[in-house]
């Protein structure tokens, strides 16, 4: 008794066409498809996040500890030495 019969579907299609019009139905179906794709992608990413969290907890229980962050290695300065800026007027006065 809970199953949809073919005439139920036909009545639903007629009501949809009367409510939305034949021109707006393809746009509505397209936006519904986009929404379902977004929902599917988000639920998949949430499941992946949960899997990563569980893997991290398993590593912690097994005694795995990540290495502490290392400070960056300092490179010796290899730039050029800048000459002091001399005012041209001062240079003329000194000579």
Description:
Keywords: Cell membrane, Membrane, Protein transport, Translocation, Transmembrane, Transmembrane helix, Transport. Part of the twin-arginine translocation (Tat) system that transports large folded proteins containing a characteristic twin-arginine motif in their signal peptide across membranes. TatA could form the protein-conducting channel of the Tat system. One of its GO terms (cellular component) is TAT protein transport complex. Belongs to the TatA/E family. With 95 residues, the protein is mainly alpha-helical. The protein has a domain at 23-59. It has three helices and no strands. It starts with 5 loop residues before the first helix and ends with a helix.
């Amino acid at each position: 008794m809970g199953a949809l019969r073919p005439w139920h579907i036909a009545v639903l299609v007629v009501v949809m066409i009367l409510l939305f019009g034949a021109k707006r139905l393809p746009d509505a179906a397209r936006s519904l498809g986009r929404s379902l794709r977004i929902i599917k992608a988000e639920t998949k990413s949430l499941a992946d996040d949960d899997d990563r969290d569980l893997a991290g907890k398993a590593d912690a229980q097994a005694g795995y500890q990540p290495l502490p962050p290392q400070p960056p290695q300092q490179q010796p300065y290899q730039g050029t030495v800048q000459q002091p800026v001399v005012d041209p007027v001062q240079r003329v006065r000194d000579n």
